[in-house]
Write a structure and sequence with these properties.
Shape: globular
Number of domains: 3
CATH class of the largest domain: Alpha Beta
Strand content: 15-25%
Strand order of the largest sheet: 10-9-8-11-12
Bound molecules: adenosine-5'-triphosphate, magnesium ion
Distance between the termini: 15 Å
CATH architecture of the largest domain: 2-Layer Sandwich
Helix content: 25-40%
CATH superfamily of the largest domain: ATP-grasp fold, B domain
Number of strands: 12
Length: 322
């Protein structure tokens, strides 16, 4: 069985003149090597296709694969994560992870909050600041939290993302609007314990692998799983597998969210408790990072005694069943 691999390699884009911030969500060669080696060890023939442009050329050329293992993040626009899956879907080529429709929805954290609220899942109250004039319209109780509405890897999130007053709100919103050229999601600050839950499988077969609770060391930007904290997690954070009743409640909620949005094969759901200890979802990750050393989902698997190959095997077997 021949599996193509689609990805956005950081180095390719840096060579084209993209900035480090612009490529922050893209993958390193180490990640691609990890996936490729794992697929080979599982007995598959692999073909490194590359990014959407490379895929387009190959598709027009008539090339085919039995399946494509896709981790492309895309470069521009709110549907950027959906581009490669949409292309593959239209060429009737099987691809790993969620459909193009789910990927486009989940990249927009505001839309995702609206959709999941209709299912009854709790999330922090929010307002979308689309331009500077919107800042005056924010009518939420401080402390607040501000972040770009459609980024990952905690891009644009740092020690200043928690906001205590109007002045801070103005400064951070203006800064984020300018830097990321997209709406700023302003929401109630969730002050409680924070978890990311790892899930594998699809539909009725989806199951929780485990969770990590993010614990902050004194060296960290306290209480925020920020870009710098993630990049320096070994010195700043502690990842703990939480097994208490509250953590089980969080895992159950994550699985229900995963199924409601039709995430497939594997993913992560981020949940944080509010000041009354009620779990609120923050966001969902249908394309969770897969670096075998540093990404949350593989780390969640290792804590449960699973190996990287077990995770990749779960993903491919789940996709093959479609
Ligand atoms: N409303 C909030 N209240 C408190 N903290 C928040 C809130 N929203 C986000 N955070 C903090 O910021 C972190 C990153 O936010 P979020 O998960 O939305 O970003 P991301 O870039 O999509 O992350 P990922 O790397 O998982 O893709 C969260 O893990 C959490 O620590
Ligand atoms: Mg997150």
């Amino acid at each position: 069985m021949k599996i193509g691999i689609t990805y956005d390699l950081k180095d390719d884009y840096l060579k084209e003149g993209f900035t480090y911030d612009e490529v922050a969500e893209f993958d390193s060669l180490e990640t691609i090597d990890g996936i490729d080696n794992s697929l080979k060890e599982l007995g598959y023939e692999t073909d490194r296709i590359g990014n959407s442009k490379a895929l387009l050329k190959r598709l027009v050329n008539g090339d085919k694969w039995d399946m494509v293992f896709n981790i492309t993040e895309g470069s521009y626009g709110i549907a950027r994560e959906a581009l490669v899956p949409a292309l593959l879907e239209s060429f009737k080529i099987k691809t790993t992870f969620a459909s193009a429709a789910t990927l486009a929805l989940c990249l927009d954290k505001g839309m995702t909050k609206r959709v999941l609220s209709t299912y009854g899942f709790k999330t922090a109250p929010f307002y979308e600041v689309k331009c500077e004039a919107d800042i005056d319209k924010v009518n939420l109780k401080y402390p607040l939290f501000a972040k770009p509405i459609a980024e990952g890897t905690s891009k644009g999130i740092n020690g200043l993302s928690k906001i205590s007053n109007k002045q801070e709100l103005e400064t951070i919103c203006k800064d984020l609007l300018k830097k990321y050229n997209q709406p700023v999601l302003v929401e109630g600050y969730l002050s409680g314990r924070e978890f990311t839950v790892g899930i594998v499988g699809s539909g009725d077969k989806a199951k929780v692998v485990g969770n990590i609770e993010i614990k902050y060391k004194n060296t960290s930007e306290m209480g925020i799983y920020s870009f710098d904290n993630k990049a320096n997690y070994e010195s700043r954070l502690e990842y703990v597998y939480a097994e208490d009743l509250k953590a089980k409640e969080v895992e159950k909620m994550a699985l229900e969210i995963y199924k409601s949005l039709e995430l497939k094969d594997a993913g992560r759901v981020d949940i944080r408790l509010d000041d009354e200890d009620v779990p609120n979802f923050i966001e969902v990750n249908p394309l969770a990072g897969l670096n075998y050393k540093h990404s949350d989902l593989p780390i969640i698997c290792y804590k449960q005694g699973l190996k990287y190959n077990d995770l990749i095997n779960e993903i491919v077997m789940s996709a093959r069943e479609r």
